[in-house]
Amino acid sequence: MTPAIRLLKKQKIAHSIHEYDHDPNNTNFGLEASQKLGLSPDEVFKTLLVTDGKAYFVAILPVCHLLNLKKMATAVGVKKLIMANPSDAERLTGYIVGGISPIGRKNA
Predict the structure, then answer these.
(1) Ranges for the YbaK/aminoacyl-tRNA synthetase-associated domain (predicted)?
(2) Under 8 Å between Cβ of 84 and 70
(3) pTM for the whole thing?
């Protein structure tokens, strides 16, 4: 059980789990999920971790969209953002890249 599912159960928040067999050669996790689950890419969201070198920020958007780092930087009040290093994202969130949840994260 993931930390996100544990948190949802603890808070008694209704949820459902959607599972599929991941192709280890596929690096476009969200689009793979939408295809295998039969959902529109607008219904499947990705969680991205970005940083200004000092702090980390979380962005959640549909898998078919790209994150505009300039707009995100403006939204969080910093000059510039870059995508977090995948190993940093995994260490900070407690999830593996491709399965980072917006809830139940360790630190980020």
Answers:
(1) 32-105
(2) no
(3) 0.85
